[in-house]
Design a protein that fits this description.
The complex is a heterodimer. Chain A is an all-alpha fold. Chain A is globular. Chain A has helices at 3-30, 35-40, 46-56, 62-74, 88-123, 128-142, 145-159, 184-191, 194-231, 234-241, 246-283, 289-298, 302-330. Chain B is of the alpha/beta class. Helices cover 33% and strands 22% of the residues of chain B. Chain B has helices at residues 48-56, 83-89, 101-104, 111-123, 127-140, 146-149, 159-171, 189-206, 217-223, 241-246, 251-258, 298-302, and strands at residues 6-16, 21-32, 37-41, 64-73, 76-77, 94-97, 177-181, 209-214, 226-231, 234-240, 308-309, 315-316. In chain B, the strands form 2 sheets. Chain B has an 8-stranded mixed sheet, sandwiched between helices. The model of chain B has no long low-confidence stretch (mean pLDDT 88). Classes of the chains: A mainly alpha, B alpha/beta.
């Protein structure tokens, strides 16, 4: 792979990230509420609030605040959270494994169900299976995430009673597995902790399905469309004329060609997922970054919100770069100069 | 004479359209012997490619379907074979090359991968042997620097080169039958000649029967032993190649041959056959060529002619030959 190209792409990403920093800085400043008031509570006097505002530099002109904020970022200082009384960086590091675990599960579900569903839809075009899959993916793509999550809780926890209460990653009485990666399911497997494994899996399934739903639906639709186009190509007929088994024709000859648009859509979905994490973690009280940020927004805690936006923007840039590089692996006709 | 390797009797193929079924091939008979090249000529839409895809059993699923007739390949009834039996025939005993070499190879795999895939699957070769054999095959079809070409991707090669690769792929398992669907149409003239020459050479070498589908009379003259002329879904004339060029009998064949421009003639306008092929949903009741035929009689419009034998393996679907050859 072309290192020069990667370096160039990263350079191009800088203006985007700078823009995100500016916008998010301004947005947090117009959020209703006064962080000092929120911090001190209703009972504090106006003088106390003023004093704290002075102390935090909130009375300085916006450009001054902005410069201070940016120079902090450049030094790896994202400020303190008024809620946790810890640095935002530490808070993020602590919560990242929970979010990462949820996102990876959701991504795995979305890909492992969405893509095969789309393939089956394409190979059985206009069959009842295809119609069913299309209705399913249309519902999945249009259902509001928060509503779907609440329905899952209602059905599987409140009514059927087969899922645990939506309160975090593991039940109260059960010890989390020894930390290796910080991801409970993986750590339980690595340490052979069967009790924790069973419990953490049962906790992650509903939020992961909720988070994966719209991506799964979009993957299924895109895979179907992309596969249908590829299956009509001459080289597929050649593969059949060569006597290749249907399975090989579909998975080896067609799927790889169909993959590029699927990857593109996946990149876009990643951004959506970042946003949905906030909703899903809140509904399921999942102690990840999304939950943390929701709490920060509700309490006018600027620093975590700004850090989250920046983190999302950087992640988005990196994911898209990785996808662009993946294109060249999947299809050798794709070349970057 | 040997037994024919391919025997098609009364082949009828239909396509589903939005509101009806259209018969693209209507009662085609043909026989092909080992080592022979049989040409099928006709203009676009006459059913020649559909005939080929029907023989291969490669019609687009759910759209095209053989609805009648018999296809005997190497003694086996193609229409009664299981999917598994078909797979073991395709690429091994019967191979096919297509019109557009540029789009007929998978863009995301190397030439070597696509060639060795056939060998690995049908001949049970391991990866390394199949790769080596692919290089040898490319050498056989006149590709220079085959060691380099096997590692290339289709987009890195020219159309002529890709058609050579397709031919190598088709011949990789010594098939008994090679169906070539307009293999030179997409190539420029000098490359066309090379490809035809190559196919002729390989036919001798491998004793493969070739079904050559083309609309180009020049190609027919160059490589075919016998020719079938198709019009609007059925066979209108069949003859040995020299016989066909010397004594074209069906008015359509005569028209086709007249359309070939001659360099020694000084003329402004090329000959054409008046009118167009009738669409499948509006086939004439009688002879399908009657509306365009200069010799058409009321009989032609009222009833369908059959294929009449006019001697020496030459048959013609025209009422003028009902009582034998009037020119004989």
């Amino acid at each position: 792979m072309n290192l020069k190209y990667i370096a160039k792409r990263l350079l191009y990403a800088i203006p985007a990230v700078v823009l995100v920093v500016i916008i998010i800085f301004l947005l947090t400043r117009v959020m209703p509420g006064d962080p000092a008031r929120a911090y001190l509570g209703e009972m504090a006097t106006q003088e106390q609030v003023e004093q704290l505002r002075e102390e935090w530099g909130l009375n300085d002109p916006l450009p001054v605040q902005f410069v201070r904020y940016v120079s902090g970022i450049l030094h790896g200082d994202f400020g303190y959270s008024n809620r946790t009384h810890d640095t935002v960086l530490n808070d993020f590091i602590k919560r990242l494994p929970a979010s990462l675990e949820l996102a990876l599960w959701a991504l795995a579900i979305a890909i492992l169900i969405g893509v095969p569903l789309g393939i089956a839809s394409a190979t059985h075009k206009n069959s009842p299976l295809d119609h069913g899959a299309r209705i399913f993916s249309m519902l999945g793509a249009t259902m509001p995430v928060f509503w779907f999550g609440l329905m899952l809780i209602l059905i599987f926890y409140a009514t059927a009673g087969i899922a645990p209460a939506p309160t975090g990653r593991i039940s109260m009485g059960i010890n989390p597995p020894t930390t290796i990666t910080g991801m409970y399911v993986l750590d339980s497997i690595l340490t052979g902790d069967m009790v924790a494994l069973k419990d953490s899996v049962s906790h992650i399934i509903l939020p992961a399905i909720t988070l994966s739903m719209s991506t799964m639906a979009v993957m299924a639709r895109m895979t179907r469309a992309s596969m249908l186009e590829v299956l009509g190509q001459d080289y597929i007929r050649t593969a059949r004329a060569k006597g290749m088994k249907e399975r090989i024709v579909i998975y080896r000859h067609a799927l790889r060609n169909a993959l590029i648009p699927i990857l593109t859509v996946l990149g876009g979905q990643f951004g959506m997922m970042l946003g949905y994490t906030v909703v899903v973690e809140t509904i399921f009280s999942w102690p990840g970054i999304g939950f943390y940020v929701t709490d920060a927004i509700l309490n006018v805690d600027y620093n975590p919100v700004q850090a989250f936006a920046l983190f999302s923007a950087l992640l988005y840039v990196v994911i898209n770069l990785v996808l662009d590089i993946l294109y060249t692996v999947v299809d050798r006709r794709v070349k970057y100069d | 004479m040997d037994e024919p390797i391919l025997k098609v009797k009364g082949l009828c193929t239909e396509f589903k359209t939005v509101d009806s079924r259209v018969r693209a091939v209507d009662g085609v008979d043909l026989e092909l012997y080992p080592g022979e090249t049989l040409g099928i000529v006709g203009e676009s839409g006459c059913g020649k490619s559909v005939t080929a895809l029907s023989i291969m059993q490669l019609l687009p699923k759910g759209v095209g379907q053989v609805v009648g007739g018999e296809i005997l390949f190497d003694g086996k009834d193609m229409l009664k074979l299981s999917q598994k039996e078909l797979l073991s025939l395709h690429g091994r005993d019967m191979a096919m090359i297509f019109q557009e070499p540029m789009t007929s190879l998978n863009p995301v795999y190397t030439i070597g991968y696509q060639l060795s895939e056939v060998l690995r699957y049908h001949m049970g070769m391991n990866k390394k042997d199949a790769w080596q054999k692919s290089i040898d095959l490319l050498k056989d079809v006149g590709v220079s620097r085959p060691e380099q070409i096997v590692r290339s991707y289709p987009h890195e090669l020219s159309g002529g080169m890709l058609q050579r690769v397709m031919i190598a792929m088709g011949l990789s398992c010594n098939p008994k039958l090679l169906i070539a669907d307009e293999p030179t149409t997409a190539l420029d003239v000098t490359i066309q000649a090379q490809i035809l020459e190559l196919m002729g050479k390989l036919k001798e070498e491998y004793n493969t029967a070739i079904l050559m589908i083309t609309h180009n009379m020049g190609v027919v003259a160059e490589v075919c032993d016998r020719v079938i002329v198709m019009y609007a879904g059925y066979v209108v004339e069949m003859a040995e190649v020299n016989e066909l060029f010397d004594h074209p009998s069906h008015p359509y064949t005569q028209g086709l041959l007249k359309c070939i421009p001659n360099i020694n003639e000084d003329r402004e306008v090329l000959d054409t056959i008046e009118g167009t092929v009738p669409p499948p949903y509006a086939m004439p009741k009688g002879c399908r060529f009657a509306p365009r035929c200069p010799y058409a009689t009321p009989e032609c419009e009222a009833s369908k002619p059959e294929l009449y034998d006019i001697g020496g393996g030459h048959t013609c679907r025209c009422f003028r030959y009902k009582e034998g050859n009037p020119n004989a």
